[in-house]
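Appendix B, record 7
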Amino acid sequence: MPLANGTRNGFSFILVGLPGMETAQFWLAFPLCAMYVVAIVGNCAVMFVIKREPALHVPMYFFLCMLSAVDLVLSTCTMPKILSFFWFDAREIGYKACLAQMFFIHCLSGVESTVLLAMAVDRYMAICHPLQYSAILTNSKTAKIGLVAVLRGVIFFLPFPLLINRLPFCGPRVLTHSYCVHQDVMHLACGNIMPNMVYGLTAILAVMGLDALLIFMTYVMIMKTVLQLSSRQERLKASGTCVAHVCVVLAFYVPLVGLSVVHRFGRGLPLLVHVTMGNVYLLVPPVLNPLVYAARTKEIRRRALKPLRRA
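Structure tokens (predicted):
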């Protein structure tokens, strides 16, 4: 019997850990917890340093602060549940909690994609139009861009849980991840999921796909400008300011593309591949982003290490 909307209060989905490694999940949770702690400490440190250092109150670092805030919330809405699953075998997640987690994962991913695009435009303006940079990218415009990023994520991905909520569930309720995402949950429904598939693909292409294309085009224009610089030292200095952002973009989009390919074309792959790709997508960017920017940005590195030098 299909599960009606009115009877979903006690309904839950079953999360999946690491198939074939169930006995090792308890111990594997410790490095996952360590990565989560690194993500929390690293992103909080980046935001703290940017707030305390007046020299960093410029659009480039405000965008980085937004990125850290998104990574902080994104990892926090998933990792505690994953750790409770691995440590305490709490493999069930309630229906409403699943929809809420789904919305936050997709919405925050969309916000992060928009912020990465804004950071690429910031580098484009700083390198290709340095004289107009401070006049065009003011702090007030940076705040408005951040607001647009949030609204864009909400508008495009709020329909995901709404589309899931209209579907009946009458069969298996075992997911293929340790958390809830739209493309995973919809395949458990026994109704017509074509609207979910069409809108899901449209939203991903309209946000992440478009952003990735625009970021690529932006860096093509940046590289054309860099190659036209007269001295080798100027070219290295200009391209060096983009290295950290390119690493962060790759850390976000490579796992995203890999996870999307696995969901669209890898239904016959072992379940362990789905779970691993899903965890990489959620864990790698929040952990790597603060480390990359701390390594590549002298001001952040110096300020973050100051308490250690005093000790």
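Remarks on this record: The two ends are 65 Å apart (CA to CA). The domain at 21-310 is CATH 1.20.1070.10 (Rhopdopsin 7-helix transmembrane proteins).
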